[in-house]
Amino acid sequence: MAKIAINIATGSLQQAEMIVGIDLGTTNSLVAIIHPESKQPVALKEHDSSSLVPSVVHFDSLGNATVGETAKQYLVSDPANTIFSAKRLMGKSYNDIKQNANFFTYKVIDDDTESLVKVQVGDKFYSPIELSSFILKELKQRAEHILKTPVTKAVITVPAYFNDAQRQATRDAGKLAGLDVLRIVNEPTAASLAYGLGTNTADASTIAVYDLGGGTFDVSILNIENGVFEVLSTNGDTYLGGDDVDRLLVHHFMEQFELSDTELAGDKMLTQELRLLAEACKKALSSNTVFETTFRGESIRVERSFFEQLIQPIIDKTLACCKQAIADAGITIAAIEHVVMVGGSTRIPAIKAAVSNFFQKPVNDTVNPDEVVALGAAVQADILAGNNKDFLLLDITPLSLGIETMGGLMDVLIPRNSKIPTKVGRQYTTSKDGQSGMRISVYQGERDMVKDNRKLAEFNLTGIPAMPAGLPKVEVCFLVNADGILVVTAKELRSGVEQSIEVKPQYGLTDADVEQMLLDSITHAKDDMQLRALVEARTEGEQLLGQTEKFLSKHANALTQDELLNTAAAMQALQLAITMDDKDLIHQKIEQLNEISRPYAERVMDTAIAVAMKGKTIEEEL
Question: Cα separations (Å) of 603 from 172, 466, 556, 597?
Fold first, then answer.
C-alpha cells in the first residue's frame, strides 16, 4: 500500500508529489503544473493542440461517455445526449434554474423543485457531480498521458461566489474522478497568483479581479500583504456569463427568422445550431466589426455596434456587482492598484473598455484569460507541495467534519483543508409530523456513509414544538476556533430551543489515521458515490410515496377510477424499485409516478384556486 506523507496541520505533502491545478469551467476546463525546470506555471497540452478541454460530455446509445472536442461534435447531431454547461447546475435545485430551462437541450428533471437537479440521458439519471467527474477524469487521464506519471492530487478552482453546496459538489466530483482534492481555491485568488501579484512578499496591494466566464460572473476585491491573500469582499452572479451573451444573440436570430419559443423547444437540433451560431458571432465580433454568414439559406449580418448595444444590460449588471463589492470592502475605486481580467468573455472589447472606464485604470489582460485560473491553481498546488515557502497557508482542518442525515449519509459542513478559525451553519428540518426531538451525530472523515467515518460526538435537541414534517427549522452550526476545538450548536429557529457540545482538538487522530482515511476515501470513491446516490434515490422515493398517499387521502374523490388505478400501480412499482439496488430504476419509477400525478394535482389545485377566488368575489359583493 502506498504511504502518503502528509502534514496534519497544513495538509502539505512531500515535495516528490505531483499536484496539478485544475480549472473546472462552464465552457472549457484545463490542467496546469509548475514546470520542473523553468519553475513557471504552464497549461498542459499535447503537441500543437489547445490546452482547453471543452466541458462537454456525450453519451452514446450504450451509455458510454466521451468528453471534450469529440463530445462537442455531437452538440448539434445528438443534442439530447450531449451535456454542456454542467457547472451551471452544480449545487442547484430546479427552482434555481427553471427560468432558463429552455437553454439546455438535454432533459433536466424537475420532479422535486427543492432537491438538487438531475439530468436524464436515456434510462439513466446523472447528477451534475457525476457529469463534472467525467470532465475531471478526462483531465486526469490527459495529465497522466502528458506527464507519464500517475496524478492523484489536485487543487480545483471555483468562483468566489460559489456557496457551500456548490463547493462540496465540486469536491465530490473530484473524489469520484479518483482525485484527492487538497484544496478548493477561489478563482480570483488563483488569477492573482498567476499574474505574480503578491509573490513579492514585501509588497502590499489591493486588487480587483473581474471574472466573466461562460456561466458565472464574480468580482473580488483582494488585499495581498506579506504573501497572505485576504478576500475583502466578493460579489457576482452564479448565473451570468458568456452563455447569456449567446442567449441574447439567439433571441435576436429567432426574431429575424420569426421562430417561437415553442418551435425551439420542440427542435433541439435547431436550438443547438442557433446557440453555436451565436457563439461564432460573439467570437468573430471580438476581432471584427461585422459578422456575416448564411444560416439555413438565410443571410445574417450583425454589426459590432448592434452587438454592444445588445449586451449592454449584461455589462451593466457586472458593473453593479463591482460597485457593490467596492462598497462592501469599505474602500474607494482609487484604492485599487490592479484590475485583473479573467474568463474568455473578457475578450469582448466593449467589456474591457467598460471595466477600464469603471475602475479608471488600464486592465491587466496579458495572461491568456482562458488559462489564467488554472495557472494560478498550479501555483497554489506548488505551495501545498512545499516547494514555495514564501506564502503563509493558514492552519486547516485535516479531515472533513459533518453530521449524519437521513439514510446514514454524511453531510459535510466543514470540508477538509478548510482554514481555521471557521464557522459554518446549515438548516435542517424534521422528517415526521409532530417530531419533538432530533439527534445530532457529529462525524469526521471523507467517506459518504457515516458508518465508514469516525464518530466524534452525539447529542439530542429536544423540546421542538409539535409541527408538521418539514416546518421546523433547525440550524446546526460548526465553529472551529484557532485552537482546533470544535463547538457544535443546534437551534430550532422558530422556538429558540438550543443545545451545544464541545469536541476537543485534533480529535485523537495520528498522522497514520489521517493518511489511512484519505486513502480509503479515494479507494472507495466510486462505491461510496454509487451508494450515496442509491440512498438519496430511496429517500426521495419514500418521500414521494408519503406525499402522494397524503394527497390521495384528501382528494381521492376528485380523481377518476383510471387515475386511481394508475397511481396505485405506479406507487406499487416505486415501492418495489426502492427495495432494489438500482438508483436509475428508482428515478424512472419516480418520474413515472410524477407523470401520472402531475395532471390531476394541477387540476385539483386549479379547482381550489377557482373556489377561493369565487368566495372572495361573493364576499366583496356582500
Answer: 40, 31, 13, 10
Contacts of range 540-549, beta carbons closer than 8 Å, 24 or more positions apart: 540/112, 540/115, 540/586, 540/590, 541/574, 541/577, 541/578, 541/586, 541/589, 541/590, 542/578, 544/111, 544/112, 544/574, 544/590, 544/593, 544/594, 545/571, 545/574, 545/575, 548/593, 548/597
Is there a contact between 171 and 388 (Cβ–Cβ < 8 Å)? no
State the CB neighbour count (10 A cutoff) for residue 115: 15
6-20 CB burial, b ≥16 within 10 A, e <16: bebebbbbeeebbbb
Map 142-189 to HEC letters: HHHHHHCCCCCEEEEEECCCCCHHHHHHHHHHHHHCCCEEEEEEEHHH
Residues 295-334 as b/e (b if ≥16 CB within 10 A, e otherwise) read eeeeebebebeebbeebeebbeebbebbeebbeebebeee
Q: If pLDDT is split at 50, 70 and 90, which confidence band does 142 have?
A: very high
Selecting among 23, 130, 237, 584, the annotated active-site residue is: 23
Residue 444 grid coordinates: 469526521
d(CA 372, CA 377): 9
23 counts as catalytic: yes
CA dihedral 246, 166, 180, 174 (to 10 degrees): -40
Residue 377, CB-side half-sphere exposure with 13 Å CA sphere = 32
- Which CATH architecture group holds 19-199+366-384? 2-Layer Sandwich (3.30)
State how far the alpha carbon of 538 is from the alpha carbons of 82, 209, 477, 544, 588, in Å. 27, 43, 27, 10, 12
Question: What is the distance, to the nearest Å, from the Cα of residue 29 to the centroid of all Cα atoms in its chain?
Answer: 14
Q: Which three cell numbers, joined as nine digits, stand for 286? A: 471580438
The residue annotated as part of the active site, out of 130, 211, 273, 446, is 211
Please indicate whether residue 138 is annotated as part of the active site. no
pLDDT digits (tens, 9 = 90+) for 211-266: 998 877 889 898 887 667 777 888 888 778 888 999 999 999 999 888 888 887 77
Pairing of strands 338-342, 204-212: parallel
Burial 209-225 (b: 16+ CB within 10 A, else e): bbbbbbbbbbbbbbbbe
3-state per-residue secondary structure call for 320-359 = HHHHHHHHHHCCCHHHCCEEEEECHHHHCHHHHHHHHHHH
Residue pair 22/29 in contact by the 8 Å Cβ criterion: yes
Options 187, 446, 448, 536, the catalytic residue: 187
Q: Confidence class of residue 303 from pLDDT cuts 50, 70 and 90?
A: very high
The 8-class DSSP code of residue 44 comes to: -
- Distance from C-alpha of 491 to C-alpha of 464, rounded to nearest angstrom: 9
| CATH number of the domain located at residue range(s) 527-621 in this protein | 1.20.1270.10
* pLDDT digit string, tens, across residues 168-205: 788 888 988 989 888 888 888 888 888 877 656 556 78
Active site (annotated) includes residue 527: no
CATH fourth-level superfamily of 401-510 = Substrate Binding Domain Of DNAk; Chain A, domain 1 (2.60.34.10)
Active-site annotation holder among 72, 87, 118, 268: 87
Q: Where are the domains of the chain?
A: 19-199+366-384, 401-510, 527-621
This prediction has a pTM of: 0.67
Q: Which of 476, 498, 597, 493 is nearest to 548 (CA)?
A: 597
- Upstream peptide bond of 421 is cis (omega within 30 degrees of 0): yes
528 is catalytic: no
